[in-house]
Amino acid sequence: MFAVKMFAFIITGSSAILSDAIESIVHIAATGFAFYSLIVSLRPPDESHPYGHGKVEYFSAGFEGGFIIVAAIAICYFAIEDLIVGVELKRLDSGAYMIGVAGFINLFLGWYLVQVGKKTKSLILIADGKHILTDSITSIAVVVGIILVLITDFKILDPLIAILVALNIVGTGYGLIRESVKGLMHEADEFILSRVIELIRKNKAYDFIELHKLRAWKAGDAHFIDFHLTVPSYFSIEESHDIQREITKILADEFGGLTQTMVHFDPCVQTCCKYCEKPQCPIRTEECTLNPVWSVENCIKPAIYDK
Question: Which pTM value belongs to this model?
Fold first, then answer.
């Protein structure tokens, strides 16, 4: 694709086509890093990286986002230069045809990579697929611009379109960097947290009095979940172990086999009775009169009786 775009630029002298080619240069470098990151992320956990190597994909996404922004700056530079110096265009029809074909191929490739990335839960493939989709949108915009220049003979449209293309891809670059920072900083994922709560609540069988201090993060296709679970104080270690094993299986079935779950069991205290729904409890001191909401907002906080 890069070779086609560079040839189209050479024969036309179009800033808009050059902007498309520059983005392809950046994409080649970013894809190389993404490929290396994908290989690293597949390595199993070891003594130096007990949680695995999945977080490298956040570096990859940030790297690619940064390169996209660099490409946008370069595109603006050449376009502004053409606005100042003037534009000399030729053979725009041939250039539009070549860029159009490249854009169509990238459109299919980008869509395919995003779908595979979602299926395998790989941020690396999703980021690269989005970059290719951006590349294809850039190509389409360039072709539209060239057609407008051919129709109107208003040549200044060419660098102006290049600048618009640059501004558009800045948004994509920012989005990838934002996703990278979010993953590296363990930003709370509302979907994962709410799904964990929903599954535990659904399978609680009245033995789980309260869920609190819930945390979850992901790296690659691995999920790491930990929380505190208040259970009746007379439960044995064996019963607690069975609950841990059941919860681990439920969450692994939901998020994938690489999911690691850590449950800290807290014994109930007397004040728990008023919101404990367990029937025929042998140590109950008062009736259940409250029904705490198992929401993300409540479950990420300390236990009610600790407040």
Answer: 0.65
